[in-house]
Every structure is written in C-alpha cells, then in structure tokens.
Amino acid sequence: MRILVLGGDGFLGWVSAMHLAASGHDVAVLDSGVRRAYDAELGTSSLVPIGTLAERVAVWAAVGGRPIEAFTGDVCEPGLVAGVMERFGPEAVVHFAEQRSAPYSMIDRDHAVHTQVNNVVGTLNVLYAIAGTGVHLVKLGTMGEYGTPNVDIEEGWLELTHRGRRDRVLFPKRPGSFYHLSKVHDSHNIEFACRVWGVAATDLNQGVVYGVETDETRADARLGTRFDYDQVFGTVLNRMVVQAALGEALTVYGSGGQVRGMLDVRDTVACVRLAVEHPAEPGEFRVFNQFTEQFGVRELAERVRSLAPAEIKIDELDNPRVEADRHYYNAAHTKLLDLGLVPHLLDDATITGLLRLAHTHRDRIDRRVIQPTINWRRTTNALADDESLADDEWPADDESPADE
Amino acid sequence: MRILVLGGDGFLGWVSAMHLAASGHDVAVLDSGVRRAYDAELGTSSLVPIGTLAERVAVWAAVGGRPIEAFTGDVCEPGLVAGVMERFGPEAVVHFAEQRSAPYSMIDRDHAVHTQVNNVVGTLNVLYAIAGTGVHLVKLGTMGEYGTPNVDIEEGWLELTHRGRRDRVLFPKRPGSFYHLSKVHDSHNIEFACRVWGVAATDLNQGVVYGVETDETRADARLGTRFDYDQVFGTVLNRMVVQAALGEALTVYGSGGQVRGMLDVRDTVACVRLAVEHPAEPGEFRVFNQFTEQFGVRELAERVRSLAPAEIKIDELDNPRVEADRHYYNAAHTKLLDLGLVPHLLDDATITGLLRLAHTHRDRIDRRVIQPTINWRRTTNALADDESLADDEWPADDESPADE
User: Fold this and answer.
1) Fewer CB atoms inside 10 Å of the end CB: C or N, chain A?
2) Which class for A386: exposed (0-12), middle (13-18), buried (19 or more C-beta within 10 A)?
3) Cβ atoms within 10 Å, residue B49
4) Which positions in chain A touch B151 (Cβ < 8 Å)?
5) pLDDT at A220 over 90
6) Beta strands B208-210 and B250-253, pairing class
7) Is B207 in contact with B263 (CB distance < 8 Å)?
C-alpha cells in the first residue's frame, strides 16, 4: 500500500514510517519540523541524539530500507496536504502531525490557542483533502480524551440505554487538558466527516508510550527516534529512568495512584500498521483503544526503583495537574488484539534496557527541565522555577543545551 | 449587575443588551462588526433596515434607556476581552460573539476553518479573561450540538449507568455541521475551565429563534434588530414568511419531518436575563436547553400557509443537509422554566405579525439569496446557482443590495 505519514519526523511518526516501509509498503512522510522548534522554544532536546529528517531518510535507504520519500510543510497550510496527496497518491494517511503535549497546552493562553488551532485546523485540512478520495484516515487520538470516568471505557462508541430507548453514541469524554481537548474536538470533526462525506477513519486512542527502540531503529544508531524526558514532552516511564540514571528520586504526582493505559513503542508501530492494513469502511468512524496494559504511576515507579542499579527513593510531588489521584479505571482494548496485535508487555528487560540507555546518555541530561513547573490551576506558567517565560522573555539561545 | 455582552451588535446580542439594560442592569457591548462583514461577503442584508451600533446605542439612550456602553474589537484578538473587562468591570459576560450559521461553515474549507477557529479561540480568550475573577460566563450554545439522538435529550449532563456502574457525564453530542461542532468544542473547553479554574458557566443550548420584536425594539423603529431570511443566516420561520410575502412557495428540506426546539426572540432575551440573574456556582458547568416548544418544519410551513394572505404552496426540496428527515425528538427544557421563564408560545398573532413585517419590507427582499445552494455533501459550494464563490471571485460591490 501507499501510505503518507503526517508528522513523520516526530517521536512516533518516524518509527511508524520505518515500520510501514519495512513491512513492504510505499511510504512518504510530511513534516514541518515544528517538534524541533518546540525544543528550541523550551530549551530541551532528545536524550538520544537524532539526525535531521533528511539524514534519517538517507540512512534508512543506505541500510537497505524500502525508500521513504520526505515532504516538508505544515498541515495547517491551506492546500498543502491535498497537494502532497496529489503528488504521492496514498491509499492511507496516518496523521501524527499534532502538538502532543498536555503541559505545553497548559503553559498559558498562547500555548492553549496554538495547540487547539494547530491540531483542529490540521485535521480539518486532512479531512477536506481526503473527502471523496476513498483514502483511509488513521488518526492518532489519545486515551486521555476519556479522562477517568467511574464507568468502564468502551472503544469510542457507547451502546446507550436511556429512559427505555436505545442509541449508539460517541462515548462521553472528560479530557484533562487543552491538548486532550483538541483531540476530542478532532474526534467529533472526524466522525462528522465520516457521516457527511463517507470518509473512512480510524481514531487510535493511544495510551502512554514507553521505550524508543523498534526492530527498525536497531539497524543503525542514526535511525533512532526522540527520547523525551522533560516535564513538557517527556512521558512517565522515560522520565523515571532518566531520574534513576541521575541517581535522583523518582517523582510521582500526588500519591501516584493515577492509572493509565500504556504500551511499548513496538506495539505502537504494529497497531498503526494493523489499522492501515485493515481499513475502516467508507463512512465508518472506527475507534481503537491503543494500549496493552494498565498501570498505576506509583506501581511503575516501584518497578523502576527495584531495577535501578543504585538505591533511589520515590518522592511525591504536589500534583501540578487537576486530576483524580485515586479512581476507577477499566478501559476496553480488544479491537487491535482481534486484528492480530501481539503485545510486548512491560518486562524487566525493557525497563533495564531503558535504564541502560539513559545511563549511556547521562551527560546529555538537563536536570532543570525535569521538575514540573506548569500548574493546571494557573493561567500563566513559567517553564523553570528560576525563569519566567512571559511574552518577551523567551529563553536566549545560550540557555539551551546543545542539541542535534 | 454589570454585564458585558460580547457580540452585542448581532441579531440576538443587540436585543439582549437592551433587555438587560431595561431590566436595570449596567450593560456594555463589545462587537467587531463581523456580522455586517458577512453580509458584504455574501451579498445579503437584513430585511429590516438596521442602524450602526453607535446609532442604536445613541437612540437607546435618547429614548430614555439606561445607557449602553459600546466597545469595538474582536474577541479573537489576544488580550482584548481581558482589557475590556478591566475597563468595564462586569459581574457577568454574555458571549454571543460567534459565527452562528451552519450553512456558512459548510461553504468550503476556508469557511469551516474560519468558523471553528473564530468560535473556539474567542471562547478560549473569554475563559482566560475570566479565570480567577469570579465573573459568571453565560455562553450561547445550540440545541444542534445534540443532533437528533434516538433517546431523550437531557440538559447538558447525563446520569449514566453502564455495566452496573454510574457516573455523571456530558450528554453525548452528534452535531450536524462544522458550526454546530464548534459549539460542541466550546462546551468541552468551558466544562474543563470550570473544573480546573473554578469558572462559573452557563451554556445556553438554544433552539431556533423566530421573530425580531421585543418590548425594547418597539420603543423606536431605529432600535430594530436584524431580520435574516437568506439561505446562510436566515432561520426557518423568518425565511418562510418572506417567501409568503413574495407569494412564492414555502420550501422545506425533504419532507420537512425534522423536529426542532424553537423559541420566540422575546424568550431568548428573558432566558439570557434569567441566566445572568441566577448565576452558576463557582466551578459549575451548567447547561440549559433554551427553547419553549418543539415543531416539525412541515408543521411550521402549514401554519404559515394557513395565515398567509394569498394562496401558496409548499415545495419539498432535496435536502442540502445530511440529516434525518424523520426521527425521534424529545428534549428536556425545564431549568429555565424553573427560574421563572414565562414562554411566548407560537400563536397566530406572532406569525401574522411576521407576515406583515415581511410584506412591509418586501421591496428589500432579494430572491436570489433564499434558495439553498450549500450542499453538505460537497466540500466546495457556490453561493448562488449562477455564480461561483471561489477564492478570487468574491461578489463585486454592485452585486450587493443596498444595506445599512
């Protein structure tokens, strides 16, 4: 199949593109490089050095990978997605090209507006580009769209019985940040496009991803993908192994009782491939809950502590987010298993591998970017305790650690 | 109370502002004039001539109304709402300042994007402006957010029982246009702001409004509000009385079996006042379904026909929208009644009054703007059968009928 991956320079876009190519598909990526711009803005960088998109695409071909074509541009630009589709002629579009950080969206008004406009307009552009073409949309959503309801979470839809009557409705959402909200907005817009234009769409409500290695990244160190550990773009397990590499306390928010669906990055790429290879029907808005296991945050911290080479402790921080610390959580996730997903469950070897990776790159760790300073309760936040990020006070270049 | 009305130059914003002032409140309005710009773009105008905002505010004071202060600006501009709030010091903000036409949002990509960005960013700006101030937000939503589910529609929230467990969740939405979707996005954003910042908000899910006269407009002809009858901004009953005034067939979409909640414009202004005078609690996201009666579209057409002075027929048009022609519809609407709303139910006198008004201004009717040309199934639509509105083909000035 011919597959266009939007956001193909990002953490998961890049490994998905390689995995699709390795699976025999013709792949092109489109990316604006905005994720690297966020690094520049935030003074952060990937723990693992990564090459430019052009370099990675060239290395991938050099090691014998099925060539990946690279397009540059912003999906928010009118006509850009349609133009690239016309040139490449995809049968499926995989859409990773969104601002994906909840804390980033909660910095202040400008970042909330940027996140929602960027994500909603990009997805609208994709919908207008594929309407009437028969191209299957595979869109990255998030389990965070659901929040933590006191009832079982289904996969996107709910068979509702109310006052003796029945209907099939979108599962009610209670997202926890302006970022998560942007994905809820996307889901509603996509469902509408399926209804009125007959678009075939799969919304992948993904859990928290851990790990950075896939079968494809192992071919050459220069094919590595981003490893984010900072308070803004880092995800929980990746951040903890960095804290462990520093010999510092692992931090949880509140008591760490939050439960989330999680998955290995190798399962992410497999899920994306399975969704593409088994497309939705025309007019179908299909939702998969894309995770393999549920973990409590404290429970993860205990596992990292038990495998860390040195003695470390676990610190409970005041939760900068507004969320329940203890809650019911039981989310369905059978549809990708039904398509053939064989999960890589979280084992000690995976955690140990991550600990080793963090140790290898420990000289690149910037302690200042780890501790959370973005508080959901405030409407304006500074990015580090000792500096303000008001409009005219962006970090100067010399404050940013060296990066790719 | 001190009340700031955003979008106070529009169809309902203006009459609400006057009604609040007439009820003894200190009122200011903020408007960018964009509704008049849409007229210029579409080549349409209000059937009833209306003055500029400055003229209307001056006439209102001249006839003895409690003075209304007028601010000019766009709520999408960063800092504008916060700045006006600082100057005026409101206790409540009533937010009408959104693009409110479903067909407008379905013209093409640019109009869909404009509608969602304009509405979502404006509301985000309002939320950031009021967070932490204790100001009560009264936001205009729409009954169209719900769509036409096969179950009873509740007022915003649903007591859900699912697999033996219970939760209170936002009522699932199935909106019918990118405009309606923008209001669903707003509702989710507002509920989140209530949760994390303790904002007090009332979301008024309003039905289809008919009529243009209120107690306040009757004081002077120059205080009149917009009367829209065109395919883009016109609402169903107002459009039908214009067709009747022309002696032309009343048109319904499909068989006209669509059922909608509707209300008299006099009840709109009363509902807004009741919501303001009985504010939501801090942190409360309160939803009122703001309509008084349910009508089928065909049923409305029959009533207009029976009261029209000449013999007219009812034509069934191919429905340009994607919606159910026959469907279950039963929506709760008790909360505003509980606050004291005394509905003006649709009586023959109201319809006859509208027929008379349309007859009085029949020389101002532009037949070309009535018939629907915006088809939900297409991604690009022309605004009239004989002209295209592609990017570089906006209607020339001389194509627009004379207007205010």
Assistant:
1) C
2) exposed
3) 15
4) 160-163, 165-167
5) yes
6) unpaired
7) yes
The gap between the terminal CA atoms of chain A, to the nearest Å, is: 32
Predicted confidence (pLDDT) at residue B135 exceeds the cutoff of 90: yes
ipTM of the complex model: 0.95
Q: pTM of the predicted model, to two decimals?
A: 0.95
- For residue A373, give Cα distances in angstroms to A104, A123, A321, A369, B91: 11, 30, 10, 9, 31
pLDDT value at residue B385: 56
Q: Is the dihedral of CA A304, A309, A313, A315 positive or negative?
A: negative
- Catalytic residues of B, by residue number, are 142, 179, 183
Contacts of B181 in chain A (CB under 8 A): 185, 188-189, 192
Q: Is the pLDDT of residue A396 over 60?
A: no
pLDDT (average), residues A264-288 = 98
Contact A280, A202 (CB under 8 A): yes
Query: A241 and chain B: CB distance < 8 Å anywhere?
Result: no
B283 to chain A, closest Cα gap in Å: 12
In whole angstroms, what is the distance from residue A52 CA to residue B4 CA? 51
Q: Which of B158-172, B288-302, B312-326, B386-400 has the lowest mean pLDDT?
A: B386-400
Tens of pLDDT along A348-385? 999 999 999 999 999 999 999 999 999 999 999 998 75
Residue of A104, A146, A179, A210 with catalytic role: A179
| Interface membership of B401 toward A (CB under 8 Å) | no
Q: Alpha helix locations (H) across B131-216? A: 178-197
A183 is catalytic: yes
Q: How far is CA A265 from CA A68, A269, B141, B226, B300, in A?
A: 20, 7, 40, 56, 57
Please answer whether residues B16 and B9 qualify as being in contact, where contact means their C-beta atoms are separated by less than 8 angstroms.
no
Task: Give the pair of three-digit tokens for residue A281.
Answer: 């029907």
Nearest by Cα to B238 from B246, B230, B347: B230
Q: What is the pLDDT of residue A389?
A: 41
What is the rounded distance in angstroms from the CA atom of residue A67 to the CA atom of residue A58? 8
Q: Which residue has the tokens 């998969």?
A: A288
Q: Which two tokens stand for residue A215?
A: 């079968």
Residues of B in contact with A184 (CB under 8 A): 185, 188
Rounded distance between C-alpha atoms, residue B363 and residue A113, angstroms: 45
Phi/psi of residue A240, nearest 5 degrees: -65, -40
A139 is catalytic: no
Q: Does B181 touch chain A (CB under 8 A)?
A: yes
Residue B196: which of A151, A160, A322 has the nearest Cβ?
A: A322
Interface residue B121 vs chain A (CB under 8 A)? yes
**Cα–Cα distance measured from residue A88 to residue A111, given in angstroms and rounded to the nearest whole number:** 33
Helix (H, G, I), strand (E, B) or coil at A264: strand
Chain B residues in contact with A192 (beta carbon < 8 A): 175-178, 181
CB A146 within 8 A of CB A205: yes
CA dihedral B228, B229, B231, B232 (to 10 degrees): 0
Dist CA A126 CA A137 (whole Å): 8
HEC sequence for A26-76: EEEEEECCHHHHHHHHHCCCCCCCCCCHHHHHHHHHHCCCCCEEEEECCCC
CA-to-CA distance for A105 and A289, rounded, in angstroms? 23
- Helical packing angle, A11-22 and A53-62, nearest 10°: 20
- Interface size A-B, in CB pairs within 8 Å, comes to 143
CA A7 to CA A30: how far, in whole Å? 6
Determine phi and psi for B289, rounding to 5 degrees: -85, 110
Q: pLDDT digit string (tens) for B70-105?
A: 999 999 999 999 999 999 999 999 999 999 999 999
Find how far residue B170's CA is from the centre of its chain: 22
